[in-house]
Here is the input.
Amino acid sequence: MRLLLVAAALAIGAVVTGEPTSAAAVPPTLESEVRRVRPLIEATYRSIHEHPELGKQETATHALLLAAMQKIGYTQFVESTLAPTAVIAVLDTKRPGPVIALRAEMDARPDTEPASHSPRSLIAGRMHSCGHDAHAAMLLGAADILWNNQSSLTGKIVFVFQPAEETPGGADDILKEDILGRLGVRAIFAQHSVANMPVGTVSVSPGPTLAGSNTFKLVVEGKDSHAAQPSDGSDVPAALATLVRGLVDLPARRLDISNRPAIISVTYMHVGDTTALSKLQSTGTAWGTIRAFEDVAPTPRSDSSISTLIEQYLAGAAASLRVTTNWSLRKGSPVTRNDQDLFDRIAPPLRGSWPGRFDTAPYKGMFSEDFAYYTQSIPALYFGVGVMRDTLGTVGVHSSRFTVHPAALGEGARLMVLVAELATAGTTQLR
Here is the structure.
């Protein structure tokens, strides 16, 4: 924003005085800076997209981003023992001010990309179907702009290129090492690609914004039988199907869904150890996720936790189906919460300087993000950035048909620069 305001002030001064301003004396505008770094952003995006790496395996991505940051001029880096593929760099303006962090992800997913995509993954069975390649490229562009204009900044900016967002050990490992705490980070910001939201649109709202995610495993056991005589056994395949149907329907029937939004999704099922079509197997297993804005595990103060309700349902249903069940739950990312005070200080001036649509309508999404770990201990804001234009950016994340329009790359860099300028300005008075 200050890039824009300084340039505008010089232009107005030239009109008032009637004296031309030397081109060499005019600082760059944010618009011109975004144009300058577009080749870097687009080349980085293409390279990471074409060479996707899964969580904790991002060695080539690490090398690419580290070299790019060093070429820009960064020399202060912090290594992570638990997350060694992370690239964490510090811009120290040497002027008093708050310490903030900007975060992007690096890892890909085990998906197969359609041949029609351009750019397209060159590694079979892996692709960037969640936009992390775009986020890393956007943050690199912002790091270049901020380095080139650090004379207008105060405090310190920490750039976190984080691995393993899709798997355990990304944000949680960085927090375990207290890297951000040791650096004195007082606020952290991130963005995520949003399909079907036009390029140039930004969204952010205070409070809980993304659900927490938990994974579960359900094992069903009973008596096997011949397929011609299901009455001789438990018909485990049918029992498993019945239990799964009840599980996914449970939130709508056992919860006040308007006040306790939750989704149970069964994502994989397997029955028995043979493909013999004449046999009804004795075991079956289902895996899936529970997404909610509350702790789903049992608590001493509540007998109506989601996990407790599931256990009650399974106990009753299993008895009627003549099977036994074994239910296990693994906690994942917590709820992502946007800090109200930080929102109140950053969102209004950001809205005033953002050239496109700026949406602050209340939003709760059932997606989950490991950025949530940061929000538990550091004031944070998590932005949505539109990636849709023409035929690109029209399919949601975690689909092999997910795409990002290249015009969104510069907008993401612009957003991170504006956020950094506002967050490090003394007028924001960050906690």
